[in-house]
Amino acid sequence: MTDLPIPHSTGRAVGSLRGSMLVLEQTWTWYRRNWKATIFSSVGLPVLYLLAMGLGFGSQVRAGAVPGGLTYLVYLAPALLPTGAVQTATGECTFPVLSSFEWSKIFHGVTATPITPAQVVGGWLLWVGSRLVTSAAAYVVVAAAIGAVTGPGILLSAVFGVLTGMAFGAPLVAFAATVKSTGTAFNVVFRFIVVPMSLFAGTFFPITQLPAWIRPIAWITPMWHGTELARGAAFGTLTWGPTLLHIAYLLALFFVGFRLACWRFRLRLTA
Amino acid sequence: MSVRSSPDPALVSATSLVKRFGSFTAVDGIDIEVRRGEAFGFLGPNGAGKSSTMRMIACVSPRSSGDLRVLGMDPDADGPKIRARIGVVPQADLLDAELTVRQNLQVYGRYFGLSRAHVRAKAIELMEFAQLTDRADSDVEPLSGGMKRRLTIARSLVNDPELLLLDEPTTGLDPQARHLLWDRLFRLKQDGVTLIVTTHYMDEAEQLCDRLVVMDGGRIVAGGTPTELISTYSTREVLELRFRPGDQVNAVPKVGDLADRIEELPDRLLLYTADGEDTLAATYEAGVRPLSSLVRRSTLEDVFLRLTGRSLVD
What is the ipTM of this complex? Predict the structure, then answer.
C-alpha cells in the first residue's frame, strides 16, 4: 500500500472586519467593470433634483420667513444630501440583495468559504457606505459649482447625509433578506415609504407646514432627522441637544437594522 | 510493503446525525466515517437526504441533532476554521456570472485569507487544470455548462483543500464533459485529496468511490465498497427479458424457479442469477418467448432496486 501525500490546505479563517472588506472587494471587482451603468442613478438623480427644484422651481420662490432669507436653491442644497443618500441606499439595499440570494445566489457561494453571513452583511453595508460617500462628494462638487453652497459646513452635511442613508439602508437590507421570488414586496417600500418620505419629511419645506397630527410620522423617518442635521451643519445653526438626539436616533436605526440583517441573513443562508 | 495504521482520526465522522426542516426530517439519524485519502460516496435518488448531509458536512447548514466532526472539529463551534480547509462544489454552480473566469477564482481565493499574489498565481494554475486558460478573461455567463462546472471545481481547489465535497458533480453534463471531470477528480485523489461525492448515477459511484453508502428516505440502507455491495445484495449476473408492456406478468410463473430473485418492471423481468446464459437457455426450455433478452453484470442500480424496491432515476 502506497502512502498518499497528505495535503495541507493554505486556507484560513479571516477576522470579522477583514471578511467584510473581502466581500466589499468582490463587489468592487464587479463595480470596476460596470460603474458606467450606475453612475447616473447615484450621482445624477440628486443633481437633477437640485437643478429642477432648486434652480428652476426655486426661481419662482420668494425668500420668505421659512427659508430664513436664503434663496431656495441654497435652502434646498444641503437637504438633498440625506434625501439623495436614502434614495441611493434604497437602490442598493433592495433588488441587488434579493438577486444575490435568489438569482445570482452569490451570497450562497460566499458563505461556503470561511466567510460568515454576518460578514456578508458587513461587506454589503460597507459597499452601500462607499457608494453613498462617492455620491455625496460628487453632489457637493456640482452644488458648489452652481452656487448652491454657502460655506464648508456642507461637508458636515454630507457626513450626516451618509449617516441618514445608512440608517435607512441597514433595516432595508434586513427586510430584503426576507423577500422572495421577484421582489414585488419592494414596491411597497418605494411607494409608501421612500416617495412620501422624500416629499414630506422636510426636504423641500419645513415639516412645521404640515398639519400637526401628521408631524409625528415625519419625526420617525430617518430623513427628517437627516435634513435637520444637514441644514443645521450647512447654515451653522446646530445646537448640541437636538444634534446629539438626531445622531443617536440615526445610529440606533443603523445598529438595530444591522443586527436584524445579520439574523435574517443567517436564517436564509444556513437553512 | 507495509500497511501502517492511519495516523489520522477520521476526516469526517457522524453519529446519529439528523437534519429537520420544520416537521420534515431530511436526514434521519445517519452514521458515517470518512478516512483520509479515500473517495466516499452517497448514492441515492433525489430527496434521499444526500444534499442536506453534504451541507452539514460543509458547515453551511447546522445539524438538528446528533454528533458531527469534520477535520476533528465541531462545525457548530469552528465552522469558519473548517470551511477554510475544505473545498465545496455545490449542486448549483453559484459563480459570479458578471465576473471573468480569472476574477471568479481570485475573488473566491481571497475569502480564504490568501494574498493577492498567491491567488493570481493559483488562478493561472487552476485554469490550466480545468482547461479554461483560453477563456481566462471572458465572462462566466456565456460559458457552457461543462465549462462552468469545471470552473466551480477549480474554484473549490483555490485553498488546496484537504477534503473536497462534490454534490452531484456531473448532473446535466454530456458524456464527454463527465469523463473530463472524472479524470480531474482521479488526479486530485492521486494528490491525496479526500473526496466525498453525492450522486444518483450508479456509474459515477462505481467509477469514483472506494466506499459508499446507499441513502433512501433520509436513512442509510447499506454501505461498503461497490464490489461488496453488489456481491452482498445482488447476484453476479442479471438476465433482462423484455416483453410487450403487460405481458411480463404471464411469464413470471414459468421463470420463478430459474433465478435467485426476480424483479418485475413495467416492460421487463430482471432475473438475478450466477450465470445469465444458462438461465436464458432454461427460460426458452420453459417456453418463455421474450421480445428480446440481455445478459449483463450486476450494478449498483440492482443493489438499489433490491434495497428500496425502486430505481435510482425515475
Answer: 0.90
